[in-house]
Amino acid sequence: MGRTLALLYGVVCYLVFFITFLYAIGFVGDLVVPETIDSGAGKQFGQALLINLVLLSIFAVQHSVMARPAFKRWWTRIVPHPIERSTYVLLSSLALILLFSLWRPLPAAVWSVQNEAGRYALWAVFWLGWAIVLVGTFLINHFDLFGLRQVWLYLKGREYQHIGFKTPFLYRLVRHPIMLGFVLAFWAAPVMTVGHLLFAIATTAYILIALQLEERDLVTYHGAAYTEYQRQVSMILPLPKKK
Question: Among residues 12, 80, 179, 216, which is most buried (max CB within 10 A)?
Fold first, then answer.
């Protein structure tokens, strides 16, 4: 029964994540969903700025701290190993839901692209970014990344084995294509408002800082193989590395 409940829990956490992921596309793109990055009337600037920064900080702290190996070693004394990743995914999703629901728009335009070809080009980059994010997760095992593989193996009574180090397709161009996809999606806006710009700057800064921590963990875990990978492939921009 415990194994079945763990599987159900993992599936629920995944569904919460997937709905949140789809909502994030609408939120950032100001599309379809009821609350978007630019929806609603503008509030008092200082108050809105402070609220938005707090919301972004909550997500950044939760998302980064809970991903660190030292935290995981402590956390799994409380949360069983098979559902640790699912719990991380659930809490990350809840942090995003909080951000979506309490975000305060800052609607003043920083830029507005009027040229039709330019607008189409930016929308193409926006959707390309989200596509890179999704494809990138499947290239390294989507179901392991979001906790489903762990609870499935637990249901079957099989010991969890970490995914081996590999560099398929996009990972031969940059070490972190998922993060590249997010950056493209966050910045490709035909109309860039102050609120959207705040979101793009803050999330990009977080990505660059968080990647330094993740790279350190990856070197510790994979050793010389990852060090050589760093030497050969750029971190986030597909630029040739110096030999």
Answer: 179
Distance of CA 113 to the CA centre of its chain: 27
Name the band, by pLDDT with cuts 50, 70 and 90, for residue 43: confident
List the Cα angle 201/204/210 in 5-degree steps.
135
- What is the C-alpha to C-alpha distance for residues 16 and 82, in angstroms, rounded to an integer? 18
Are 184 and 28 in contact by the 8 Å Cβ rule? The answer is no
Closest CA to 49 of 99, 114, 106, 113: 106
Among the listed residues 175, 157, 158, the one whose alpha carbon sits nearest the alpha carbon of residue 217: 175
Burial class (CB in 10 A: 0-12, 13-18, 19+), 159: exposed
* DSSP output for 198-236: HHHHHHHHHHHHHHHHHHHHHHHHHTHHHHHHHHHSBSS
Average pLDDT estimate for 61-83:
96
In the beta sheet, which residues pair with residue 174?
234
- As given in the structure block, the two tokens for residue 142 are 């989507």
Q: What is d(CA 162, CA 152) in angstroms, rounded to the nearest whole number?
A: 14
The predicted-structure confidence for 136-175, as pLDDT tens digits, reads as follows 999 999 999 999 999 999 999 999 999 989 999 999 999 9
pLDDT at 231 over 90: yes
